[in-house]
Specification:
830 residues, Topoisomerase II, domain 5, Gyrase A, domain 2, Topoisomerase, domain 3, 4-stranded mixed beta sheet
């Protein structure tokens, strides 16, 4: 066996130790020099070098574009000895408006798309710095930041940029290092600066305080984010999930675009979602049968904006399809926030939002102080020269004589310093002085500039001596950036968690008018859109109807009310008033099948608004009273309807041929009044009805007659058209009766005596061919206004007191003038 040679530079080491140390060195190199951003300027080294190089090349926002290849070559040759693809890809991302909330580079040419298309080769594209980037680099030449040697020691590069705004939060970042990763979303510039300014004034502010300013991420692609509480927790811990959703809306058929059914329109998608991949995933789900109800998917996006159309089948429920899209595609996605950044340029650290802003502000404090020192030195140096020039001008003849007697420049400088006590710097400035400066006007300029410099020196010295003045300056500069570059938030923040489909915290509680057509279209509008008119007028258009569709229900509610929808088949559904889409006065509204799981040929016949916040209503609500067209009535405990499933509940078991028509809330001690289309009425005590379960059928409320009358339908049978609940013994208030041809009247309730239920009742109105049958009857409890809507969508709003008080056996007065083919459809009081 050969003898082992003794090498002087060879050391014996354990392999595990060597690998451990080498890997740790490699890991720290990746962490510090490549993958993680610096909390101070929010940039990774490659991004910082790109911006610094472009600044050196003079590629400001007002300059001409230069080839991207030229920029990449400069970066590689001077500062970043890595692959050209890595540098170009990094520069491309800085220019992509769908990745950067405020792009730092302006690109000309193909810089990629939200569809996942890659940018064109660097030899084809051009770039320059954006306007906001100038604030990132401002004053870098004034020794505001520390510098270091480049990779070969031939140049100097900044360790960090001055950064006039918190870039780390504003544009966010994504980075994968060794054993750690960072994922910081972009935010709204104005919100981040407002939080920074608040933190300057309130050093002990909490994350909760700052969250009042920074609502949440503000993605360049818009969309929605959910759950303010979860967002605040993520900000407090420096990590956590944030649920994102695209902007999708269910719309009606659009003949202009040849869309014959309801469709879903997507105009915004979650951040960092590939649009093409999203559409492909939707198509896969359709072909696999997991996304039923979809007829066609089209991408109509163009340079004006994103637009994905998902046509639905005729029997499809839009909300169900949309919920599946949220569940099975990236139309809903979770952003996993992880605010990991380099603290002090070397230490990786997970920071909460306050710590990020604190470290940025500390950096900015250092930048302003260093800049002030630099400006002070420059001002002092210039003042020193100006003092020498002034002194020379005061002794100009002697100075000129001294210079003339000197052998050369060096001798003249020495003589000036010896004879007049000038410094070498002042002597050089005097020798460089032109003869034109001897004029009186030029002398005055020197004196004015000297006075100005002395004033500036005093201000800069005061700034350096006072921390509070430095912070004032920082706030001013931050607010200047906000004023110039801030814009509106693009991403809407919902207070509740995704999946609850509510936005109650964002919707003001206010009165609203809800209208529903027999064809199943519903909308809500502000009551103020129906102006008060005189009784007997034609009214205004309140809703555009199509074909044979007519307005069937018209009611007032609060936007926060719980709405119970009772159908002709005896089922009940629930939604919230603000979930009904707001519309214009003449708008048709949205199809009800988008909100309720209705079966074929199932129609809503009664809508009950319930005030969830009203303790008085909750105390009085003991029973739900239901009446049918066939004269059957039933009451069921109110508690049975507290939790109505999305798929609906059985509210009443109907006999064959009968239809549920009216529902009201009673206290258990009230009276009930029922009216028929033919003008008969019966008032009886609620105690005559025993409580029954939801699946029971009920008992007879009124006996209907079959004899002929102008009010009868084509079948020749009278039906119930109204049911209302009034407090026991209530006699002073009025009963408002409205008839099909626009006639109506008020009758004092005392004229309707209490009877036993089940009888044929007494006459409530004189029904003739002129008045038409009774359409609605309501108990009036206060001075209200009446809104009447016709089958063709005509609406009139008038004062209740303008309607005459008349006896039971009268025809009433004209409330609304209708066309021959039009009839009153529904009535609401406001």
């Amino acid at each position: 066996m050969p003898k082992e040679e003794n090498h002087q530079n060879t050391r014996q080491r354990e392999l595990t130790d060597e690998m451990r140390e080498a890997y740790l060195d490699y890991a720290m190199s990746v962490i510090v020099q490549r993958a993680l951003p610096d909390v101070r300027d929010g940039l990774k080294p490659v991004h910082r070098r790109i911006l610094h190089t472009m600044n050196e090349m003079g590629l400001s926002s007002s300059a001409r574009f230069r080839k991207s290849a030229a920029v990449v070559g400069e970066v590689l040759g001077k500062y970043h000895p890595h692959g050209d693809t890595a540098v170009y890809d990094s520069m491309v991302r800085l220019a992509q408006p769908f990745n950067m909330r405020y792009p730092l580079v302006l690109g000309q040419g193909n810089f990629g798309s939200v569809d996942g298309d890659s940018a064109a080769a660097m030899r084809y594209t051009e770039a320059k710095l954006s306007k906001i980037t100038a604030t990132m680099l401002a004053d870098i030449e004034k020794d505001t930041v520390a510098w270091m040697d480049n990779y070969d020691g031939t140049k100097r590069e900044p360790k960090v940029l001055p950064a006039a705004f918190p870039q780390l939060l504003v544009n966010g970042t994504l980075g994968i290092a060794v054993g750690m990763a960072t994922n910081i979303p972009p935010h709204n510039l104005g919100e981040v600066i407002d939080a920074s300014v608040y933190l300057v004034d309130h050093k002990k502010a909490t994350v909760g305080d700052l969250s009042e300013f920074i609502q949440g991420p503000d993605f360049p692609t818009g969309g929605f984010i959910y759950n303010k509480r979860a967002i605040r927790e993520a900000y407090g811990q420096g990590k956590g999930p944030i649920v994102m959703r695209g902007n999708a809306e269910i719309k009606e058929p659009n003949s202009r675009e040849n869309i014959k059914t309801n469709y879903i329109e997507i105009t915004e998608i979650p951040y960092q979602v590939n649009k093409t991949t999203l559409i492909e995933r939707m198509a896969e789900l359709v072909h696999a049968g997991k996304l039923d109800g979809v007829r066609d998917i089209r991408d109509l996006s163009d340079r004006t904006g994103m637009r994905i159309i998902i046509e639905l089948k005729r029997d499809a429920q839009g909300q169900k399809v949309l919920n599946k899209l949220y569940k099975f595609t990236e139309l809903q996605k979770t952003f996993h926030l992880n605010m990991l950044a380099l603290s002090d340029g070397i230490q990786p650290q997970v920071l909460n939002i306050k710590e990020v802003l604190e470290k940025y502000l500390a950096h900015r404090f250092e930048v302003v102080k260093r800049r002030t020192k630099y400006d002070l030195n420059v001002a002092r140096e210039r003042a020193h020269i100006l003092e020498g020039l002034k002194k020379a001008l005061d002794n100009i003849d002697r100075v000129i004589a001294t210079i003339k007697k000197s052998k050369d420049r060096a001798d003249a400088s020495q003589n000036l310093c010896t004879k007049f006590k000038f410094t070498a710097l002042q002597a050089a400035a005097i020798l460089d002085m032109r003869l034109q400066n001897l004029a009186n006007l030029e002398r005055q300029k020197v004196e004015d500039e000297l006075a100005e410099k002395k004033k500036l020196i005093k201000e800069l010295e005061m700034l350096l001596k006072s921390e509070s003045r430095v912070w004032v300056q920082i706030k001013k500069e931050l607010l200047d950036v906000k004023k110039e570059f801030s814009d509106e938030r693009r991403t809407k923040v919902y207070a509740t968690a995704a999946g609850q489909f509510t936005e109650e915290d964002l919707v003001p509680k206010e009165d609203t008018v809800i209208s529903l057509t027999s064809g199943g279209y519903i909308k809500r509008v502000a009551p103020s859109l129906y102006r008060t008119q005189h009784r007997g007028g034609k009214g205004i258009i309140g809703m555009e109807t199509r074909g044979d569709d007519v307005v069937s229900h018209f009611l007032t509610a609060s936007t926060h009310d719980r709405l119970l929808f009772f159908t002709n088949t005896g089922r009940v559904f629930q939604t919230l008033a603000y979930e009904i889409p707001a519309s214009t006065r003449t708008g048709r509204g949205k199809a009800l099948v988008n909100f309720l799981d209705l079966q074929k040929d199932e129609n809503v016949t009664a809508v009950i608004p319930l005030d969830r916040g009203s303790q008085e209503q909750q105390k009085q609500a003991a029973y739900m009273v239901m009446a049918t067209y066939g004269g059957i009535i039933k009451k069921t405990p109110f508690s049975d309807f507290e939790k109505v499933r999305h798929s609906g509940l059985i509210a009443l078991h109907l006999k064959k041929g009968d239809t549920l028509g009216w529902v009201g809330v009673s206290s258990g001690k009230d009276d009930i009044i029922v009216l028929t289309r033919n003008g008969q009425s019966v008032r009886f005590s609620e105690k005559d009805i025993r409580p029954m379960g939801r699946t029971a059928s009920g008992v007879k409320a009124i006996t209907l007659k079959d004899d002929f009358s102008p009010a009868k339908d084509s079948a020749g049978k009278d039906v119930v058209v109204a049911m209302d609940i009034l407090a026991s013994g209530e006699v002073k208030n009025n009963l408002l009766i409205v008839m099909a041809n626009g006639y109506g009247k008020r009758t004092v309730l005392s004229q309707f005596r209490i009877q036993h239920r089940g009888g044929s009742g007494i006459k409530a109105a004189n029904i003739t061919a002129k008045t038409g049958p009774i359409v609605s009857a309501k108990v009036l409890r206060e001075e209200e206004e009446l809104i009447v809507i016709s089958s063709h969508g005509q609406v009139i709003r008038t004062k209740i007191k303008s309607i005459s008080k008349l006896g039971r056996a009268t025809q009433g007065v004209r409330i609304m003038r209708l066309a021959a083919s039009d009839k009153v459809a529904s009535v609401a009081t406001v």
